Amino acid sequence: MNLEIPETPRRIVVVGGGHGGGAVVGFLRQYGFAGTITLIGEEPVAPYHRPPLSKAWLKGDVTVDGLALKPGPFYSEQNVELRLCVRVESIDPAARCVALATGERLPYDELILATGAYPRTLPLPGAGHHNVMTLRNLADAEKLRGALGPGKRLAIIGGGYVGLECAATARALGAEVVVIEKAPRLLERVASVPISAFLQRYHERHGVGFALAANIEAIEGTDRAEAVRLADGRRFPCDALLIGVGAAPAIALAAAAGIACNDGITVDDDCRTSVPHVFALGDVAKRPHPLYQRALRLESVPSSMEQAKRVAAVITGREPAHAEVPWFWSDQYDLKLQIAGLPFDADELVVRGDPEADKFAVFHLRDGRVVTVEAISAPPEFFAGKKLIASGKVLTAAQLADLAVPLTELIA
Amino acid sequence: MAKITFIEHDGTPHCIEVADGTSLMQGAVSHNVPGIEADCGGAMTCGTCLVSIPPEWLEKAGRRSDEEAQMLQFLGCAADNVRLSCQLIASPDLDGLCVHVPESQG
Ligand SMILES: Cc1cc2nc3c(=O)[nH]c(=O)nc-3n(C[C@H](O)[C@H](O)[C@H](O)COP(=O)(O)OP(=O)(O)OC[C@H]3O[C@@H](n4cnc5c(N)ncnc54)[C@H](O)[C@@H]3O)c2cc1C
Ligand code: FES
Predict the structure, then answer these.
(1) Per CATH, the architecture of A334-411 is what?
(2) B74 touches chain A (CB under 8 A)
(3) Interface touch B74/A302, C-beta < 8 Å
(4) Where would a tag sit more exposed on chain A, N or C end, judged by fewer CB atoms within 10 A?
(5) How far B70 CA sits from the closest chain A CA (Å)?
(6) Prediction ipTM score
């Protein structure tokens, strides 16, 4: 018989004041955790929504206050100590404490790492010029916004979601935009051919130029980036250059403490790392996904939220919620993209609706079951698709493609 | 200002004050009301801010926009009294409203 009384944690330290860090402190209180919580973030602002940084905020439709994940008084009302503008420098798992850049040491019973990711850059001379930017946080977004306006020329390296969202916003602000992408099509790793072809046409209609399958030879300019030159001789002059080539997980702190990492901090289903009393969640965590028999590092708000709920449930001894179908969204111009599921081993693609009408969905099937839905301005198809992914109902491609078969019938 | 009561699926009430012009979702998030997750922060893409409102309040709450109706069609349930709380804006008209939060969102 095990006579050990499970120890109730009293002090929780969360490293990283981003979406996951901000969410987990709220869930811990919702689930009844009554001990002390300290949330430490290196940025000067309390946790905020990052998605608008390339969308509504960049365009000027939202204020900084409007970005806040929780309003200012939240942290004191919830009795969460918020420490901003300070980095955690190291973790001492044996002594169960973290050291801050100020030299202060904070003890913990449970530690939650939510350090997120930082933007990758390019190993090219000139990538360090002041008008070459990346976009991850509010400070980056403020800099980018300052570079946009009527007649300003923005070159974007990388045709992923962040690059395309910024292209759309920059056009709305009157800038001239060219997107330079190494792959032969946009969103190559994350979207199907019909979606990337549609988006390219849509952006072109809005005046965005594209250079695909591009081989960048140099960033020209001596004290600032003046143009991007390709190996085929093409040259794209610019006033500002945005590099949007993805993000790398912020693992250094964990790795230095001996916590196992491999393209992210390795965690189990419950987001536990290889070191006792240390959890990791959000963009930095690589976790075996319950719906896919593989470890994944999903960089999305819904995934951070799901993991935050899981960690809070595990720490408070509460039954965790069911696994959720992973999903993601993006806004470009007036388009609403919503994507659910991951297209592993899909064997059939079905388009429902008419891309020419700027409103359609692509279903990915495996053995007749929907595994992914990508919806362009089609929320009913998106939510119906999400239900189909969860239920695993067997359908034919013909049924899915036929607009005369109502979605209600398809999901029934 | 409106006093709004959010009732969790297990019956726990949360009575909060929501400032005029802000959404019920924002009010719930400010007060850490369980069950209102609001992943998208009100951009009307996530559908994780669902509430149901008593039929007699429907008129005062205002009609849902086409976009909201599209979002709701296959989310939770299509019943008329289900709303996205990020689209319900507090005003003195809503003072005293009691909404139910579903067991799970999305
Ligand atoms: C421009 C942009 C647009 C996006 N759009 C979407 C979208 O439309 N939909 C979607 O689902 N997702 C989107 N995302 C992704 C989403 O924002 C992330 O998945 C989410 O923010 C991840 O949360 P996180 O807590 O893991 O990391 P983050 O939110 O990045 O937070 C990590 C925080 O930890 C801090 N930190 C790191 N190390 C330390 C340390 N040692 N000490 C103290 N603090 C530290 C960092 O400075 C940062 O503030 C977007 C991201 C960006 C950048
Ligand atoms: S908060 Fe996302 S739809 Fe309401």
Answers:
(1) 2-Layer Sandwich (3.30)
(2) yes
(3) no
(4) N
(5) 6
(6) 0.95
